[in-house]
Design brief:
Blueprint: H1 2-15, H2 17-27, H3 29-50, H4 60-76, H5 83-93, H6 99-132, H7 136-157, H8 164-174, H9 177-182, H10 186-198, H11 200-227, H12 234-250, H13 260-270, H14 276-305
Length: about 325
């Protein structure tokens, strides 16, 4: 959005472009390692998606490759962070998975990601209170959690029978009539949801995998700050990463969380005496990872739509 872009420009100008550039350059090979960590985290999330399917229903390679498509669309396109998930389910149905099952898997995967992000945020908040005490940031995050819990509960409830009309409206909004048929009839969708939630072992495995995935993402902060000369310990890096991800989640309607990510990282890094220019450099390196991971898959996806095909496309 224009407001987010203006916020980003203002933050960079106030911190000094030369200082931010110097901090980015000091990251050196750390920036490449951040991209590697992002690749690992997205591939790991593909494994989390795979385990929600009944045994043998979907191939791991499809779940991983299409997870990269979802990531690229949600991160780089103005789709409120969920449009890529609908595209991923659509593409999964073209890989031989029944449409209703593909659609249901997408909702269950989103649920496991949201629930584990909530747990990750709680973990980060607890560490923040232990390290820095109960300050304004901790209270703000706690207030956000109070709002997030019922919202998460509502998302789960619409996936039960009472949410038929809501789900149908969402699917109609994000997909054309032809694409909607790829997900199967609404009753079949809910039957698939019931089966996936009813398989407690696979659902628990998906939760465990996604929670580990959020922790893998902490390596981005840990490695980047170390290379820039700010040797935070892993607990401090986890506080920064978990609460920064919570800020990005709260700003889901803003493409790329422009401005929100930068402002959040400045506030969080400031808790550990990391200057604003280093926090902005960290944000830039994270955005380089967004591009490094997302752009190739978007190109291949668009090439697939055009009939060229590709590993990440249709």
């Amino acid at each position: 959005s224009i407001a987010g872009l203006c916020t980003v420009v203002g933050l960079f100008m106030s911190s000094g472009l030369e200082d931010v550039s110097a901090a980015v350059m000091s990251a050196g090979w750390g920036a490449a390692l951040v991209v590697v960590a992002r690749l690992a985290a997205v591939a790991w999330a593909g494994l989390g998606w795979h385990v929600v399917f009944p045994a043998g229903a979907a191939r791991l390679v499809d779940c991983v490759s299409l997870r990269f498509v979802r990531e690229g669309i949600n991160t780089l396109l103005p789709v409120a962070t969920v449009g890529g998930d609908f595209v991923g389910a659509r593409l999964m149905s073209k890989r031989g998975v029944p449409g209703a099952m593909a659609g249901a898997s997408m909702f269950v995967d989103l649920m496991t990601q949201a629930l584990t992000q909530l747990l990750f945020t709680v973990l980060g908040l607890g560490l923040l209170v232990l390290i820095a005490g109960d300050g304004p940031i901790a209270r703000t995050v706690a207030g956000g959690l109070v709002v997030a819990v019922p919202a998460l509960g509502a998302f789960y409830l619409i996936q039960r029978r009472a949410g038929h009309r809501i789900i149908q409206g969402l699917m109609s909004r994000f997909a054309s009539g032809r694409e909607w048929r790829a997900f199967g009839a609404i009753d079949q969708l809910y039957d698939s949801l019931r089966r996936m939630y009813g398989n407690h072992g696979r659902f628990a495995a998906a939760l465990a995998i996604h929670l580990v995935g959020w922790i893998i993402g902490t390596l981005e902060v840990y490695v980047c700050l170390h290379f820039m000369g700010y040797p935070v310990d892993f607990a401090q890096a986890l506080v920064i990463e978990s609460l920064a991800q919570a800020v990005r989640g709260a700003a889901f309607a803003v493409p790329g969380a422009l401005g929100a990510q930068e402002g959040g990282l400045i506030a969080l890094c400031g808790l550990f005496n990391i200057p604003a220019e280093a926090a902005l450099a960290l944000s830039l390196v994270k955005r380089f990872a967004d591009l490094g991971v997302g752009v190739p898959c978007l190109v291949l996806w668009l090439g697939g739509v055009a009939g060229v095909g590709g590993e990440c496309g249709a």
